[in-house]
Specification:
about 425 residues, mainly alpha, 17 helices
Amino acid sequence: MESFARDKASFTPSYKQYVLLALTGVYIFNFIDRQILVILQESIKEELQVLDWQIGLLTGFAFAVFYVTMGLPIARWADQSSRRNIITLALAFWSTMTALCGVAANFTQLLLARIGVGIGEAGGSPPAHSMISDYFPKERRATALSIYSMGIYGGILFGYLFGGWLNQYFGWRNTLLVLGIPGILYAIFFRFTVKEPPRGYSEAFVSESPLPTMKQVFRVLASRRAFLFLAVGAGLHTFVTYGVGNWFPSFLSRMHGMESGEIGTWLALASGLGGGIGTFLGGYLGDRFGQIDRRWYLWIPGIAIAISIPITLYSLYAANQYAAVISLLFSRLCWGTYLGPCLAMTHGLVSLRMRALASAIFFFVLNFLGLGLGPMCFGALSDLLHAEFGIEALRYALSFSALVSCVSIVCFWQGSRTLNADLDNAPV
């Protein structure tokens, strides 16, 4: 307990907020580099002469496979080592690989560089989630994790805005080179301004038990019915958000004739603003209503996804591009509500020395189903429908998202039924 007393002076409320903002900055770079190809994909497709499913492979599956598989051993490392240092190394590595994407001579080289980005980004979120749970108590944790998760939409906003205009005037290669360098500088800044918190600091509790094995963590999560349903529900939800989100720039280009600069500007506002607000609200409302009934942590995402279904379909069939983009803003607001509550509940279901690995397991399901399969499946469906429907194929392919969202809602509802009991039986 002496270490907690020593750190109390340095871990002031304002410093905790600073660390949260610094970690959010890392996540902004994470999503700039992850999603930048989405705004560049039509230019890449034209130069490299690739099909939609190959674009889906670049923006989704190839990235996701290495992201989720490397996330597990890196999270295991983070549960026993300095999480700050792991985040620093990861940020510097994935930023370097993003810059290298800009010098790829062909599809294979670009694919390999994107795999490198995925490997680097695997070291970002699980250690960050674990640090946040040590800095913030459980009654404020969903809000803190939601603020961190707003980095997703901050990254999308800056990536779309700058990426769209840089691509239009300087080309996709120069865009990737320019956007890769700042992350390396930020990694140095992060390393020397952020402190590693003691594990269990927010609970004022030191665990004397040995580090759980990966098998033990898997066993705990597999025994929690609430986790199984919330993970699958979140995975199916991100199948929709990544699938529709990654293809929406191409949809606006093909169906409404917009250029990349205009697309980037509009989607930066729709995705960045809408998604950021929704992500914060998800955590805030979860913490507020979760004090009354913890099942609200899963009810809120389910309700929001239900609201998003007709809005998303309208954005796909709207008469003009501005109605489509404004509708997407409200879809993004609803889509963003799930992440903070789901992460908070995942951490609540395990012991404090399982948190980084629990996040990685959650992200494994989330990104394999969502990022890995979403963009590629929608791209493949678009290719399949193209012979019969031509330019309308992408619209019809993205409409399939409504059915997947319905299944996701059922999963969140099922998970809420055992959530209270599973939280009460969580290991210390």
